[in-house]
Amino acid sequence: MLKTIALVVLASSLSVGAQAQIVGVPLDEARAIARDAYIYAFPMVEAYETLYAQAVDKGGSNYKAPFNTLGNTAQVFTPRDTAIVTPNSDTPYSMMWMDLRAEPLVLTLPEIDPKRFYHVQLIDLYTQNFAYLGKRATGSKGGSFLVAGPSWKGETPPGIQKVVRSETEIAYALYRTQLFGPADIENIRKIQAQYKVQPLSAFLGRPAPPPAPAIDWPAPNTRMITTPEIFRYLNFLLTFCPTDPSEKDLMRSFAKIGIGAAKLFDEKALPPELLKALQEGIADGVKAFEFFKRTELDTRKVGTPALFGTREHLKNNYLYRYAAARLGIFGNSAEEAIYHGYFVDGSGAPFDAAAKRYAVTFAKDRMPPANAFWSMTMYDGKTQLLVDNPLNRYLINSPMLPQLKLDPDGGLTLYVQKDSPGADKASNWLPAPAGPFFLVLRLYEPKAEALDGSWQVPPLRALE
Q1: Structural domain of residue 453, as residue ranges?
Q2: Do the domain assignments include residue 300?
Q3: What is residue 386's DSSP assignment?
Q4: CA-to-CA distance for 316 and 89, rounded, in angstroms?
Q5: Which of 428, 439, 432 is CA-nearest to residue 356?
Q6: Are 65 and 312 in contact (CB under 8 A)?
Q7: How are strands ordered across the β-sheet holding 170-177?
Q8: Would you say 178 and 372 are in contact if contact means Cβ atoms under 8 Å apart?
Q9: What's the total number of domains in the chain?
Q10: Do 97 and 194 lie in a common domain?
Q11: Cβ of 449: how many Cβ atoms within 10 Å?
């Protein structure tokens, strides 16, 4: 019988020694540690909700495929897809949660027309993008690529173009394949059918190694990202995450409040005043993000290129990693795609389509600079999901340009409102909900002027 890795929830207490250590921490120190630990934990636990929905909960509406098996979705996201906030609806997804404990996986990609954007984004349990495969990173000719976990030791096998390593034993592969329009969906299905995944042993035609221990995956709940319960889930996830040398001091600090790989954390066993201090620390973390968003993100002093990428890129800036998860978890690194969010108007107020109509204009010579394509997507301000509307139009993108109406001077104006702007402007209408909303402008394979900031994002302005 396989050994089971489980999230242990004790009904009565932590171990006596562990509880004594936590209780001995001054309340102000416990609060400060909880703030940092919450910011650290949130992206991982948020990602875990997606993992559970897509690879564990077989009866759920968002289930895709078991571990190490590719789940293809030959359609774009709609408002009915709720497992991932702020999804794009330009590129049908293929997705796979990878368990790399027993052996690496080999991802084989077909040759794809270089006019079509596609890639495989590889994400570890920290939500860091540790590598890319695909058009920009490895070319459109395809090939076989090995994805290995932190414990694998070996040389590059024959037939493998590249070896990439995940810091964590569990990781995520997110495939995006550009759809040119409704009539192109059969081509997408043909491409997805050629995406192949094999354990290394199967790729080499050798016997498989012993399987890794079975995992007892704890079911998510509504409290797990808003209360100290988040730390129980963090401890579970850390069992798949060997400590990076740069985080040893951080983990020693976290251990003071019972955080660490496989440690038992039971918030119900803590004294009320300590539990209150931990909850206040979580509230402090939320406030830190809200201040950062208001002063840095909403004002575009910090752009999304800073928020997504490798550990080296992020430099262990956990607030950036948190912000990325809050605004659009599993976002791309800048070289693959950059995101410009429209969150507030010129006065700093959230957009509200119940009260106002809006428009954004791209000048003729200032269109979004993307080598692949660009897309403007609408999201509900409350749910962060796509907006249901009678047109089933969730975005406007550059492949739609032949169907859009240009301004007399050659520019492009998009109308953002809850009701139709009229027959003469309907082609350029992006329907909004009757309430708060935000937009995300995505540039896939952005050009140099998008990356260096010389291209400026035009404002979304209120119409009279």
Answers
A1: 336-462
A2: yes
A3: B
A4: 30
A5: 432
A6: no
A7: 71-72, 93-99, 170-177, 118-124, 129-134
A8: yes
A9: 3
A10: yes
A11: 12
Angle at alpha carbon of residue 376, lines to 179 and 95, rounded to 5°? 45
In a domain, 63, yes or no: no
Q: Which residue has the tokens 């992006």?
A: 430
Asked whether 435 and 354 are in contact (CB, 8 A), the reply is yes
What is the gyration radius of the CA atoms in the chain, in angstroms?
23
Q: Is 3 domain-assigned?
A: no
What is the reported pLDDT for 1? 34
Q: With contact defined as beta carbons under 8 Å apart, do 429 and 417 qualify?
A: yes
Q: Do 128 and 184 fall within a single domain?
A: yes
Q: In order along the chain (464 residues), what is the average pLDDT of each group of 10 residues? A: 35 41 83 98 98 97 96 86 83 96 98 96 98 97 98 95 98 95 91 98 97 97 95 98 98 96 91 96 98 91 93 98 94 94 85 96 96 96 94 94 96 97 96 96 95 92 88
* Cβ neighbourhood burial of 460 (10 Å; 0-12, 13-18, 19+): buried
Tokens of 74: 């030959």
CA–CA distance from 437 to each of 147, 331, 375, 448 (Å)? Answer: 38, 19, 16, 30
- Tell the burial category of 255 from Cβ atoms under 10 Å away from its Cβ (0-12, 13-18, 19+): middle
Same-domain status, 297 and 377: no
* Confidence (pTM): 0.87
Supply 223's token pair: 């409290």
Whether 329 is in a domain gets the answer no
Instruction: Tell me how far CA of residue 312 lies from CA of 169, 170, 192, 452, in angstroms.
Output: 19, 20, 31, 19
DSSP helix, strand, coil percent of the chain (3-state; round to 5): 30, 25, 45
50, 211 Cβ separation under 8 angstroms: no
For tokens 């290129």, name the residue: 305
Q: Which two tokens stand for residue 10?
A: 């004790």
> Which residue type does 376 have?
M
Q: H or E segment at 86? A: none
Q: Which residues pair with 460 in a beta bridge?
A: none
Are the C-beta atoms of residues 262 and 18 closer than 8 Å to each other? no
Angstrom distance (rounded) from CA 7 to CA 237? 9
Residues 6+ positions from 223 with CB-CB distance below 8 Å: 229
- Cα(25)–Cα(275) distance, integer angstroms: 12
Pairwise CA distance, residues 235 & 84, whole Å: 23
Give residue 423's Cα distance to chain centre: 37
DSSP-derived letter for residue 297 is: I
Sign, CA torsion 391/392/394/398: negative
Contact 459, 437 (CB under 8 A): no
Q: DSSP letter at 11?
A: S
